[in-house]
Design brief:
Strand 1 (17-23) and strand 2 (28-34) form a beta hairpin. The longest helix has 4 residues, at 5-8. This protein is mainly beta. The two termini are 19 Å apart. The protein has a domain at 28-94: Jelly Rolls. The radius of gyration is 13 Å and the shape is globular. The chain is built from 1 helix and 9 strands.
């Protein structure tokens, strides 16, 4: 399956847009599209690891109490059970490729 990431990016004015790209029994792949000031509130998954990869823009990712500023070509991993969240506190849009493995039960 080929996915043209740039064509799938979609933004919402009131909250972070989560765009589903692919799912299997072993992983879930999304795009997170954030306007300046938008965020994903901190949360944790007991059984899932999450990988955030910045494709465009700059964001702040907090994982287990540690904040990381990441830009295109950089990534952060949140291990299962560790609280994590992302904030676009820059002045530009941000697009992240996000992989969750295994998928959460609600996916």
């Amino acid at each position: 399956m080929k996915i043209r990431l740039h064509d799938r990016a979609s933004f919402q004015p009131d909250r972070m847009a989560k765009v589903a790209l692919a799912a299997s029994p072993r992983m879930l792949v999304d795009l997170y599209c954030l306007e300046p000031g938008q965020a994903q509130k901190p949360h944790a998954h007991a059984e899932q690891d999450k990988l955030y990869v910045v494709l465009e823009g700059r964001v702040r990712v907090a994982v287990h109490g540690v904040e990381h500023v990441i830009e295109p070509g950089e990534a952060v991993v949140a291990a299962a059970g560790h609280e994590h969240g992302v904030v676009n506190d820059s002045g530009a849009r941000a697009v992240l490729l996000v992989v969750v493995a295994p998928p959460p039960p609600h996916a």
